[in-house]
Design brief:
Strand content: 5-15%
Shape: globular
Mean pLDDT: 88
Order of helices and strands: HHHHHHEEEHEHEHHEE
Number of strands: 7
Structural class: alpha/beta
Strand order of the largest sheet: 3-2-1-4-5
CATH architecture of one domain: 2-Layer Sandwich
Helix content: 40-55%
Number of helices: 10
Length: about 300
């Protein structure tokens, strides 16, 4: 740049505060929205290419499931599914549970579960999964374990195929030696098979599987996953598993050391110490975190 160019830029900065916006052709939020829309259209196209999924359920089977459930109020989906198999109908237990009529909600059940979480928070941990799309429309699965006492996230791992052996290895790394909690809460998911449940019991942990379609019972893990989406994943496009693991590692470190939590009395999991009140001459400087998405 010549002296005339420098003088022009200096004059432009002085009299036009928003001159940087003219250099941006596309905003980052626009690119992220395009990627999300393209991901939805891609999987819509994938679903229409060929017939996938379970075969459709006839109206007669749906009516029979509702009839058996109404005639036997104390029966759950597993028992009704067994009755359907004895009658010669080839349906899955998940299909039966989907078409069962809604039972009246018991408010005492929610209160009992809330009291259990409050009274045992020091010995409670929860695990959960959530998915993240990449730039090439691949779907990555994120596995994490969070402790209820201080909202401490133990391991965060990324994989494309979460097999039972892989999940067992992550659980053993999350609770080495005698650090296992007394209770472990996890969803009623097919990923948590019989081998995983056996390993959890072998580690001396009492497993607490939530009831189907009740994510509120695993609210701490669900809220952390939603926080990751809102504060991180909604603002970036993930390239691959390594890129996602690096972002999540930085976010977990930021959440432990610097991010305040309402459930902890607006403190941090690592108990960050508050500084003394600055005087009038002190300058407060912001330090970027996670690529500038957040500031300390």
């Amino acid at each position: 740049m010549r002296a005339v160019d420098r003088l022009f830029c200096l004059t432009l900065c002085r009299f036009w505060a928003r001159w940087k916006e003219a250099l941006v052709v596309i905003r980052p939020d626009t690119v992220v929205c395009w990627h999300r829309a393209g991901f939805r259209k891609f999987w819509t196209w994938q679903s229409r290419r060929r017939f996938i999924g379970r075969p459709s359920t006839t109206a007669a089977i749906r009516a029979l499931v509702r009839r058996v459930a109404n005639e036997n109020p104390t029966w759950g989906a597993p028992r009704i599914h067994g009755e359907m198999l004895m009658l010669g109908f080839d349906v899955s237990e998940r299909t039966v549970s989907r078409f069962m009529p809604r039972r009246p909600f018991d408010p005492d059940a929610r209160q009992r579960w809330r009291n259990f979480l409050r009274n045992h928070r020091e010995v409670l941990a929860a695990m959960d999964f959530f998915t993240v799309p990449t730039a090439t429309f691949r779907v990555l699965c994120v596995f994490f374990v969070i402790h209820h006492a201080r909202r401490t996230v133990l391991p965060v791992r990324v994989t494309e195929h979460p097999t039972g052996t892989w999940i067992i290895r992550q659980l053993r790394e999350a609770f080495p030696f005698d650090s296992a909690p007394r209770y472990l809460i996890f969803d009623n998911d097919k990923k948590a098979g019989a081998d995983i449940r056996a390993v959890i019991e072998h580690m001396g942990i009492r497993r607490k599987q939530i009831t189907p379609y009740s994510p509120w019972q695993n609210g701490v893990a669900e809220r952390w996953a939603e926080t990751v989406r809102r504060d991180l994943l909604d603002h970036v496009i993930v390239l691959n598993a390594r890129h996602l693991h690096r972002l999540l590692s930085e976010f977990v470190a930021f959440g432990h050391d610097e991010r305040t939590h309402l459930a902890l009395g607006k403190s941090t999991p690592s108990m960050r110490t508050a500084t003394s009140k600055p005087n009038g001459d002190a300058e407060i400087v912001g330090h970027p975190r996670i690529g500038g998405l957040h500031q300390r």
